Description:
The protein is mainly alpha-helical. The protein has helices at 2-22, 27-33, 45-55, 63-80, 84-97, 105-115, 120-138, 155-158; strands at 59-60, 142-144, 147-152, 161-165, 184-189. The strands form two sheets. It has a three-stranded antiparallel sheet with strand order 4-3-5. The protein has a two-stranded antiparallel sheet with strand order 1-2. Helix 4 runs antiparallel to helix 7 (120-138), helix 5 runs antiparallel to helix 6 and helix 6 packs antiparallel against helix 7. The termini are far apart.
Amino acid sequence: MKRVFRNAVFFAAIAGSLSLASCRDNKGNEEESMPMQNEHHQESETSMKEMQDTAAAPEFNDKITGRIYEAYTGVKDALVADNAVEAQKSAQKILNEIKKDTERAELANAANKIMATEDINVQREAFSSLASAMEPVLKGALASGEIYKQYCPMAFEGEGGYWYSSTKQIRNPYFGDKMLNCGRTEETLN
């Protein structure tokens, strides 16, 4: 009986270590995008937010793509904040921009799924499809700035999930506050 208990504790410790190793706080990436904070150099939250917003404001070759991306980031930010209602509103903005565009049907389908429910977990699953549909929209669409393709290896029970962001700082839309910094930047679009 002791051996079974000891083995169970051992395997639980290994599983916990693997989880932490695969989804650590991404300190190396955050240090690049955040100024040093110590007792001699403190930034207020407001100035940090302003710096992040202005640091990577991408501009697009056409206005419609810019508005679609803005609405997409609204969905992402709402999911980061665990706000299902705001995710629905931003998904509606995507649909308003692509009303009759049959080439963006996959984008519309994902946005419709997000709008159809207030269940944030269902929204997060649809957001994964939305992120996939955004890739061809974003490739080659930037006039200036950068967009970061980010990845969480723990999303969807270890299958992983991607999203796009205007900042290097990881803000995970698949887990929100539970694992806010889980993820890494996989690619930079410019």
